[in-house]
Task: structure prediction
Amino acid sequence: MIITIMSGKGGTGKTTAAVNLALSLKNVQFLDADVEEPDASIFLKPEFSQQEKTIWRNVPEIDEEKCTGCRKCVDFCQYNALVLLGERILVYPELCGSCTGCRIICPEDAISDQKRQVGTISWSTNTESEKADSLEFWQGLLTIGEASAVPLIAELKKNISEDKTVIIDAPPGASCSVIESAGGSSFVILVTEPTPFGLHDLKIAVELTEKLGIPYGVIINRSETEADKIIIDYCQEQEITILLKIPFSREIAELYSRGIPFVEEKPEWQEKFRKMAAAIEGMTA
Amino acid sequence: MKIAVTARDKGSTDVEADSRFGRCRCFAIYNTEKEKWDFIENRSLEASHGAGVQAVQTLTDQGVSVLITGRVGPKAFRGLQQAGIEIYLLEDPGESTVGEALAAYNNSELSQPAGPSSRRHPGRR
Amino acid sequence: MKKLAVISGKGGTGKTTFAANLALITDSVMLADCDVDAPNLHLLLSPEIIKSQDFYGARLAVKDADRCSDCGLCRELCHFQAIDAAGQIMDYKCEGCGLCVACCPERALKLVEHKTGDIFFSSCRSGSLVHARLKIGAENSGKLVSRVKTEAEKWAAEQGQQLVIIDGSPGVGCPVIASLSGADGALLISEPTLSGISDLKRIADLLEHFSIPGYLIINKHDINEELTDYLIDYCQERNIPLWAKVPFDTAVVRALERGEPVLEYSADSPFSRQLKQVKAMLEERILGK
Result:
């Protein structure tokens, strides 16, 4: 089973939900797909011990002997990655979209591929967290200057083990990176907060998940009886299951600030997360 | 020769100089031989990426050999160097008009940068 | 006219709440909501839309079925697998690179501007608001952010306003850079958590890169006083002075739940008091009063 955790709005508790769920289940593979700023490792504390691989993409290399300065590649490039200076082409690999188009259309066959680093993927089969029961941790880290996280997230997901319970911590928002993270999942958990901001952005996340055609449910973070009504009403109206409510608690906030997943201090919550996981399995059967 | 000044608007040399290169509104280009000003809108203004790079292409295509502006990012700086376009920086672009910027250049009041306006690329450290 | 960006790095630290409440107590102010993926300012300010504009943010390949000979070359060449077995172009995968357009033997393809969002010009409780909404999954939010800012500045100049407050995008990527570009100052809304601090450091890099003065505001400082002290010291070393420290204030939460500005809900809460202090600093340091 592959569960992606996302939230339309940043800061609602996506990573909180993801790491605490991961620490409550057995045989988990955790993927931090927020490759621009992965922070799940703050909470799960993996030991990477040199397990890292580099991910590459192709950018153009111009053979100056063959190049006639015809400018076809400059005029073609939609990414503004090529500039003609006199008779020479200057390449900006950081802007290149790796579409391979310039290489294909060059009439002199003067363009070839060269590698450029997209990012790194690191993983660990050990974590320092006491509550982790055989937790496998993967994270992607996007290289400085790279505009798109999508290729790196795609590479990260190639490491998914079908025989484990896979939890994917998606980037915040509703961009193509989120779509890439969630695509192919069995279930999506949408994390929200009981405020008009939370509701507004939850609707955006619901729209996105509906487009992906994946079953989903909601976790209300910073839940309070009165405040929750705004989310409960919406979910009832749309027939969306509310899977779990994590209470508005100063203690949980303080633990979070110190990088401590709250199930470590409140082990009774592991049972609640387990029950939620069982319910999710029921919904995806 | 042609000298380009990044400008906030077009039409006259009384408009304020723009501190940005890649995303300035216009280029005010002075032709020293013809003693004439030309204003070109910057088509790179709304480019999502590579505005500075595209702006370098614009200047090269126009045959500009000197650029007067407030700041130049690393990609544009690289391009301008390769293109052989000399860069002169305005201390306080918001306080100069395009005409005043050119005068400052002619009076040798402007300095040339050793590198791009900032050493680090924005984004991840 | 001065421009003040309100940014945070990490989402959920209170950027929008601060921007909205600050605008409500400042005269002659234009608000620009540059969080185009998930705009929230309008939820606090009950805007009335005066005008809206289509935003064309992507150029994607479009096929003229009459000219297409089904040769399949486009599908073969497409690096992004954006053309399916039936020869249809999948919008959400197409990057608009133009390769299929350049190679199609029948000239059946071309790049066409696609509408990817809307821009709104509204009047609201604090004055005027320019905001936008990007279509789900659309790219190029940086471009829309730039447009929102440009339009806000233009409209503010027309109305002779003294200040534009920009509610910035979360994160540290292109949309944030677009939010910050050309600003006279940036309010850095932070929280004393390990996740928040790591994002804040990158924002500090960005501010330095663009030579924009930053001013620190710490929200919920009392959930971790040790990290709060660390944040203040760190920012001091980077020339980002502390402008306000707001404790965990339930009034903010209550007001948020009701969709009300905090000052209206509780004029005397800690948040409200700190807000007035920020306004005073703003008037002195940026507006030069």
Observations:
- The first helix of chain A runs from residue 14 to 22.
- Chain A has two domains: 2-47+126-284, 55-118.
